[in-house]
Write a structure and sequence with these properties.
The protein is α/β, with parallel strands linked by helices. It folds into 3 domains: 32 residues, no CATH class; 296 residues, Glycosidases (TIM Barrel, Alpha-Beta Barrel), CATH 3.20.20.80; 59 residues, Golgi alpha-mannosidase II (Immunoglobulin-like, Sandwich). Helix content is 25%, strand content 23%. It has 9 helices and 18 strands. The strands form 5 sheets. The protein has an 8-stranded parallel beta barrel, surrounded by 4 helices. It has a 4-stranded antiparallel β-sheet with strand order 13-14-15-18. Strand 16 and strand 17 form a beta hairpin. Helix 2 runs parallel beside helix 3 and helix 4 packs across helix 5. The longest helix is centred in the middle third of the chain and has 18 residues. It is globular, with a radius of gyration of 21 Å. The protein starts with 7 loop residues before the first helix and ends with a strand.
């Protein structure tokens, strides 16, 4: 069961923020669900499918120790899965599968009717890789993807499949060579129609997986998740979770540009708006100083802690081709379990934990707030009130 709007307590918090933030818009309340009891809210995952092939035993074990979930190519770990599972009980590994594209060398592999074409009749291809866009509603292609998931599970011994490219990126000229035509209508695919078709594709792969979990990539961010006309939330129908790889920022966005309060709130709210698993990734794949990268990392971890309820997984990346390295900042979080949901306080957002508190300022102005109790900062100081810089977060522990 999923809710599509903000929880009541968050709507109240936003209302108070709106008194002084003219850019803020009202939110609709929905059913409330508290944090998952006894579970950590700082779960992390890794997407090494973005960086290539097989890794050595030492790297595999390092990644197993550092992450609760991993999505990788079916050949990435080969004979390393058994020792990885010994060092990380409960580790979940997903085998990567492209859901809507055939490879650039597969131009003649499938029947011609499976390939999507633009208005001129040319096959649609991805601009970066030259891969062929396929019809996600074609029964033959669906069967092929189901069989591919089962094959990958058989050869890799992974736990489940991650189905990439189910979101709406393949509909736009910045990603593909032309707008794909929906064979059933003769018109360009609409975002809503595409998501309906790819959601059914994902559900078919899950139904044919032999009980193995299936997650998809395509949520994008909170804005797309809650979109009224074409919510990417639809992708969660029939599968176990999905990836939002544009969480808080797009990868190439300038490092000094932060989301609006409205966009930030939607990203945070997305984490706990569903009982399915949400895998978020914040990417800084643009020119940035070490200080800017560190600031984004801290802001992202603190924002994640505000919204996570034990069903979400976090990843941060500052290098498009770099290896998946355990997140030292996330691993250092020792604030216990959440106590309630986040709330507005003096121009910032705060959430209490059993052994600490998280404070995030998503606005362009510094703000001060009384914490209501004593807390310890990173440098050991004990404080009862704090001033939080613009677009930053604090993770404080109980003395």
């Amino acid at each position: 069961m999923r809710s599509s709007h903000l929880r009541p307590v968050h709507a109240i918090a936003l209302a108070s923020m709106c008194l002084w933030l003219t850019a803020c818009v009202g939110a609709q309340p929905s059913a409330s669900r508290g944090p998952a009891a006894g579970t950590s809210t700082m779960l992390t995952w890794a997407p090494p499918f973005t960086t290539g092939g097989h890794v050595g035993r030492a790297t595999a074990l390092l990644q197993a120790r550092g992450f609760q979930a991993i999505a990788a190519h079916p050949w990435t770990y080969r004979d390393d899965l058994a020792p990885m599972r010994r060092v990380r009980s409960g580790l979940t590994v997903f085998a990567y599968l492209n859901g809507t594209f055939a490879q650039s060398v597969q131009g003649r592999t499938y029947p011609a009717s499976w390939y999507l074409r633009d208005a001129s009749g040319r096959r649609v291809r991805s601009r970066e890789w030259g891969n062929y866009l396929m019809n996600p509603a074609n029964p033959g292609w669906i069967a092929d993807r189901v069989a591919r998931c089962r094959r990958f599970l058989r050869i890799s011994h992974d736990d489940g499949c991650m189905v990439d490219m189910l979101g709406t990126a393949p509909l736009y000229g910045w990603y593909v060579t032309g707008a794909p035509i929906d064979p059933s209508t003769g018109r360009p695919w609409s975002a809503a129609g595409w998501l309906a078709a790819t959601a059914q594709l994902g559900a078919a792969i899950r139904a044919g997986s032999g009980g193995a979990p299936v997650i998809a990539n395509g949520l994008g961010d909170g804005r797309r998740f809650f979109d009224e006309r074409a919510p990417s939330e639809r992708l969660l129908d029939g599968i176990d979770g999905a990836v939002a790889d544009g969480w808080l920022r797009t990868a190439e966005r300038p490092a000094d540009r932060y989301p609006s309060v409205r966009a930030w709130t939607r990203d945070v709210e997305m984490l706990a708006s569903t009982d399915k698993s949400v895998f978020v990734e914040t990417k800084v794949w643009t020119h940035a100083t070490p200080e800017q990268i560190a600031a984004w990392h801290r802001f992202a971890v603190a924002s994640f802690l505000l919204g996570s309820d034990g069903h979400a997984y976090f990843a941060f990346s500052d290098d498009a081709r770099g290896p998946a390295v355990p997140d030292a900042l996330a691993a250092s979080v020792r604030i216990g379990d959440p106590v309630g949901t986040f709330r507005a306080s003096d121009g910032v957002f705060v959430r209490s934990f059993s052994n600490g508190i998280v404070v995030v300022n998503p606005t362009p102005q510094a703000a001060s707030t009384d914490l209501g109790a004593d807390y310890r900062t990173d440098d050991g100081a004990v404080v009862r009130s704090v001033t939080v810089n613009p677009h930053s977060g604090l993770i404080l522990t109980t003395p």
